[in-house]
TrEMBL record:
A Pfam family that the UniProt record links to this protein: LIP
The entry's keywords: Signal
Signal sequence annotation: 1-37
UniProt keyword Signal, yes or no: yes
Domain of life: Bacteria
Name under which the protein is recorded: Triacylglycerol lipase
Amino acid sequence: MSYGECVKSHLRAIAIAAAVVIGSGTLTSFTASTASAAPDFYTPPAKYDTSPGSIIKSRSTPIFLQIPANPRPFPGKGTTVMYTSKLQDGTPAAVTGTYIEPFAPWRGRGARPTIVMAPGTIGQGDECAPSKLVSFPVAVDTKNLTLASNYEQLFANLLLYQGYRVLMTDYIGLGTPGVHTYVNRVEEGHAVLDGARAALKYGKLPADSPVGFWGYSQGGGATASAAEMASSYAPELNIKGTYSGAPPADLQKVLKAVDGSSITGVIGYTVNGLVARYPELGPLIQKEASPAGKAALKKLATSCIGDTAFRYGFHRTSEWTTSRKSLFEISQKYPQIQKALAEQLIGKSKPNAPVLVDTGINDDIIPHGQVLEMVRSWRAQGADVRVVNDGTPPIFPSLAVNHALPYVFSTLPASQFLYDRFNAPS
């Protein structure tokens, strides 16, 4: 079997597995277990190197279904790392993630590349951190009644099979102290770019080692943000390409689409994250939220996507307000909320390397139109942006199937895009 055929075989296997996991709205049927990660690892030391990308601490982490081997196990050797990043105001912050050295050799041009994976929506509670779900991809926290699933490990395996080194970030506040600032453009971009810096430092790699980004949904927004922030925030990185699938580039438009869907609860993640960074929004939310809404926001702050869908799926945010208006309608009343949402808009700066954008024409969670608006803005600035339009017909509207399937179907073109970028002449 040729290398290309081997890659396609792995892609088919992962696509089938991914369809089972995320095609059902991320509600998996794996046997439940409790998260095994020791919580004290996720507490930063009192003092640490505040330079972005610095390694604060690390520990060995077995990967699910790992096969022992020398010098590296299959599909790779995992390490949980804590590294330094920044909040949107520049304050240093500790972030965790998983660094994996692959078993497979790199068969492309030059040195082995590093890909930073930005995971899709897994939750807002600390138990949802992807690095806590590397040894086993599903966990149930019986105390808080949360159901977490790291479905992104399937796609990490795809990259490991091709010989890529992988760092999967947990993002700011996911596992570590503080609120996870879900879909915060600046902080997610920082976590990805500083994740690349951390991977190079941990791997003792040259500063000009080739780097790429991979992300879908929440992760697509994070990699899109990283791509356009790279020139100003991390100009030293040798970024070859970015895959950004279904990025929530315009939160106002995404807010309207998500409300009433199987994952309505992620709107609560967004509200919690915005209030954490824009404290002036707190009194407004308290004024507008009903007792049920306040209880939902509190519960969602410690929830993962599985239990979020169970509890709040197909409900509407109008159930959370005293006026019975939706949170989108509420947002239109206040300039403070409009300003905070506008600051999350992606597409205002030019990416410094080629980007592949994947979008579903019938995506029932992340509207197709707002993705194309981001693409048009980037192209107007002279960026090299390619688009894959998934034409899957509408399937069970609002169930998120039309959001999940394009990720599965884009796996091959995304993989080929990054491989071609890493093999392009310098």
